[in-house]
Amino acid sequence: MNAAAALTAARAWLAQDPDPDTRAELSALIAAAEAGEDAAASDLVDRFATRLAFGTAGLRGRLGAGSNRMNRVLVTQAAAGLAAYLLEKAGPDAPPVVVIGFDGRRGSARFARDSAEIFAGAGLRAILLPRLLPTPVLAFAVRHLGADAGVMVTASHNPPDDNGYKVYLGGSDDGAQIVPPADAGIAAHIQRVADAGDIGALPRSSEFETAGEEVVEAYVGATATVAPAPAGAAGLAWVYTAMHGVGFETLSRIAEVAGYPHPISVAAQEQPDGAFPTVSFPNPEEPGALDLAVATAQEAGAELIIANDPDADRLAVAIPDAAAPSGWRALTGNQVGLILGWRAARRAADTGAASGASLACSLVSSPALQVVAERYGLDFHATLTGFKWISRAPGLVYGFEEALGYLVNPETVKDKDGISAAVAILGLAAEAREQGRTLGDLLAEFDAEFGSFASGQVSVRVDDLAVIGRITAALRAAPPTRIGDTAVVSFEDLAAPTSGPPLGDILRIRLEGDARVLVRPSGTEPKLKLYLDVRGDSSADAAARLAGLENGIRELLAAIG
């Protein structure tokens, strides 16, 4: 798209934009471009040369005016397209039911109300959750209310200027996130709405419902049963941070119902704030994100730190560690995922439910979960990345992915749920405490029981997405024969496997000594991610092997340039 075409598209967009803020933003850009300012013209091309793509992650992007941004025009088009899709699939007996949730990000409440009005105007039964709430509550509500679909307005742990639109389906999908071909069907309807022009012509109605607190209370009650507090919970001092998100109220209530002591809150991060003022990036995986939680824990003499991301679908855990510079060590997603998987496997075996039951994790998560499943006689599934796939594993009793996502109660929520996972971790910590042990001891026991696995990640954040394509193309064109001092055993391109269907844009490299590297572009951020897994004779040996593999990967990336 050239500058003239972008100007034409911008004027058409402005004519239908109902939001005074984005109208002012776009009007100023149009005026500057008309005055010959090159930067404004380039900005318009960036905003209008393409659209935010609707896919299995729904929509996610930067806030602002234009088809390549998140805004009220784009959200209205998405809602109208989803409504058309649901009506097309609906039977004649009753209108489709859609439940809508929203978090504390900028624009979330307005986007949710726009969606409810569009759904109601299209003849659907639209139910808006009563206030800003965690994503897992919306995922729960789809099943609890018997809805045909659910929409959560959130960008999860993305930067402050982002927002998104996440879609779930009921019925045979049972409240899971959308997968093909539903994503393409919804996207086609959205495109037809966009091609029709003015969103002002779409019917709207304020005759939508607002759900009562009963929905939230039902989620609280169901989640509290994940791990009722054992005797060892008495006096447990634990710090919690909501990371300026929406988790505090809900998790605090569940902890109370389940019988755990009230959390010691990181006060500066307790209330929802879409500006995320105390963190450079609202993701508990990022360096520095847990600094305030650690300071709070040190001051309180706490035994455990629990953190959710802003929409509370992810969980981070930190434990005391005298060897760490701060005295606290953040556990990796794989470490948390494996001890929760061990918990699930034991419970399935103890209750006689192992037959037909399964554990699942994404391809890029630790291979140790398969070892756990086999030990307890459970099935195991390695899935594509994302809980839209993990949640669909046959016989699932537990699933996780290394990016701090855990599904501990699939009978209640068919998505990652950082709140129910937090309750499960509180249960493990309390049980260990009752026996004079800690979560750190559980990790050591896992190594002794199943072998010493270690995982790491190298991330390449880029400003130009083409860089990611250049790196993966170079690896495909000339697969490495060694990484560092270790020989490569096999190189697989899972986008074009030698047998079976494509599994996605993932490269899997196996190395001598039971090690592997997986390479994939991030689905939500401008990053290339490289996942490293090794197995050693001891935890020290595994750590040394992982360090060597990481050095080898960095050398390989430097050579590619």
TrEMBL record:
The keyword Repressor does not apply. One of its GO terms (molecular function) is phosphopentomutase activity. Residues 509-539 form the Alpha-D-phosphohexomutase C-terminal domain. Keywords: Isomerase, Magnesium, Metal-binding, Phosphoprotein. The keyword Transmembrane does not apply. InterPro entries: A-D-PHexomutase_a/b/a-I, A-D-PHexomutase_a/b/a-I/II/III, A-D-PHexomutase_a/b/a-II, A-D-PHexomutase_a/b/a-III, A-D-PHexomutase_C, A-D-PHexomutase_C_sf, A-D-PHexomutase_CS. Its cofactor is Mg(2+). It comes from the Bacteria. Gene3D superfamilies: Alpha-D-Glucose-1,6-Bisphosphate, subunit A, domain 3, Alpha-D-phosphohexomutase, C-terminal domain. GO terms for biological process: carbohydrate metabolic process; purine ribonucleoside salvage. Residues 52-193, 229-318, 333-445 form the Alpha-D-phosphohexomutase alpha/beta/alpha domain. PANTHER family: PHOSPHOGLUCOMUTASE 2B-RELATED (PTHR45745:SF1), PHOSPHOMANNOMUTASE 45A (PTHR45745). Belongs to the phosphohexose mutase family. This is Phospho-sugar mutase. It comes from Microbacterium radiodurans.
